[in-house]
Task: inverse folding
């Protein structure tokens, strides 16, 4: 990578880290609004990639559905309630738009819209729930570490040791060695974070946090590869140019979107901190 491109990427990353820390340490309701905004940004990038940027009726329907799901989820603090009835109504609304605007809206648009909202909204929503849990500030960083540290470890392991392609048809630059490095890096990162939390006075279940680390090391890569699969289907290199050197918002949070529900479900079932 050229120095100028690397410099741009590093500066953008530094700005994003500062912004992330400010928002995460802000009151929980501010954090929830930020999660909602990021979801809407991801939703827009998906809809544009799917060719719906010039179909305002669909765009509006998707945005309204996303907001309703977030509002119901935040009000009831119930993940299942946020999914069931709003999604049923959303399916009906999509078909209503398709029926009354059948010349411009196809059944493929309906399917793509349903996927876009499921992917952009429901995968990120648990991040808001985590922030509202007991010890939520400490727990939410498990998702951040689980999403981005494996990616960093995979990059360095792949650059130094990579020889065998992982899934070349989807992501030609990823290697088996990088994939293993991601899992190892995830485990090391979680154990270091667990030690930091213990020094801060928390009681840390290191067995649970190690299992979670291994899960995150695998799932983070799945999230990244899934986004690459979508981009290939849409014949796009990136989902946008919002973040200099990184692409669109989805290019930055693709791993986080898969990690978030995994971490949320895991910490809801197994005690990690006390």
Result:
């Amino acid at each position: 990578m050229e120095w100028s491109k690397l410099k741009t990427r590093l500066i953008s990353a530094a700005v994003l880290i500062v912004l992330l820390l400010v928002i995460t340490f802000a009151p929980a309701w501010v954090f929830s609004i930020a999660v909602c905004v990021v979801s809407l940004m991801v939703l827009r990038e998906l809809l544009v990639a799917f060719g719906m940027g010039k179909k305002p009726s669909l765009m509006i329907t998707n945005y309204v559905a996303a907001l309703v799901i977030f509002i119901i989820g935040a009000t009831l603090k119930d993940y299942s309630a946020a999914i069931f009835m709003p999604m049923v109504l959303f399916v009906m609304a999509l078909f209503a738009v398709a029926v009354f605007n059948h010349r411009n809206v196809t059944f493929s648009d309906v399917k793509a819209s349903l996927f876009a909202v499921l992917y952009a909204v429901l995968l990120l929503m648990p991040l808001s729930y985590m922030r509202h849990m007991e010890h939520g500030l400490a727990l939410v960083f498990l998702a951040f570490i689980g999403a981005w540290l494996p990616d960093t470890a995979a990059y360095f392991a792949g650059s130094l040791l990579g020889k065998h392609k992982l899934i070349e048809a989807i992501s030609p630059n990823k290697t088996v060695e990088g994939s293993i490095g991601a899992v190892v890096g995830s485990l090391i990162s979680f154990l270091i974070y667990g030690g930091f939390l213990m020094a801060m006075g928390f009681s840390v279940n290191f067995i649970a946090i190690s299992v979670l680390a291994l899960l995150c090391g695998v799932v983070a890569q799945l999230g990244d590869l899934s986004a690459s699969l979508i981009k290939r289907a849409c014949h796009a290199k990136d989902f946008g140019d919002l973040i200099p050197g990184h692409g669109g918002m989805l290019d930055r949070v693709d791993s986080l979107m898969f990690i978030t529900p995994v971490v949320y479900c895991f910490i809801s079932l197994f005690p990690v901190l006390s």
User: Anything to note?
Assistant: Residues 133-274 form one domain. The two ends are 44 Å apart (CA to CA). The chain has two domains: 1-132, 133-274. The chain has a mean pLDDT of 88.
